[in-house]
């Protein structure tokens, strides 16, 4: 499976790699990747940029600047390379990183084909095609702890794959401004879950990358 030949916004790149948008911008500012000059002030990244960022956040940070430079140069000179030795003890599985990115890129492409917005449905809020299910609401409920099974029970028109689409699409297309609550958007909560007070601290702890 090959990566799609396209350009990505920083948000799309973050969604495909699985890191924060801030991390993408920081990497660009620190010239972790040799990104060409942005067009009309807009930053875009290529497939190779995404591979470089994934390797940087996976193993690059433990390498010296010189070894990291050699790592990226070797990959640039041999785009089909599968593994390479970064130092005496570290072997980088480039093929696996490339495949993981390709799978995520395919998922984002499918999500973009399955989601649309029209003024006639929920005032233009993105929904899954042939439904009135708001995509951002599904992603928000997932991030708040709702399981896939709970969402499938509450929204019978969804599939597990569509829920995956909601998560990656929302990450790639963050809403501007202050996020609206469900009630402000006119959506109704179909179920509620009581959470013990001693569990709140556990839920609020950041997940390790």
Task: Give descriptors for this structure.
209 residues, mainly alpha, Multidrug-efflux Transporter Regulator, Chain: A, Domain 2, Arc Repressor Mutant, subunit A, 2 domains, two-stranded antiparallel sheet, 4 strands, disordered C terminus, DUF433, WH-like_DNA-bd_sf, Homeodomain-like_sf
Number of strand elements: 4
The count of helical stretches stands at: 9
Spatial separation of the terminal alpha carbons: 25 Å
> What is the CATH class name of the largest domain?
Mainly Alpha
Overall 3D shape: elongated
Strand-residue fraction? under 5%
InterPro entries: DUF433, Homeodomain-like_sf, WH-like_DNA-bd_sf
Q: How would you describe what is shown here?
A:
The protein has helices spanning 10-17, 21-29, 47-58, 65-77, 94-114, 135-143, 148-154, 160-172, 197-204; strands at residues 83-85, 91-93, 115-116, 127-128. The protein is built from 9 helices and 4 strands; from the N terminus they run ααααββαββαααα. The strands form 2 sheets. A two-stranded antiparallel sheet has the order 1-2. Strand 1 and strand 2 (91-93) form a beta hairpin. By secondary structure, the chain is mainly alpha-helical. The radius of gyration is 20 Å and the shape is elongated. The chain folds into 2 domains: 10-107, Orthogonal Bundle (Multidrug-efflux Transporter Regulator, Chain: A, Domain 2); 117-204, Orthogonal Bundle (Arc Repressor Mutant, subunit A), CATH 1.10.10.
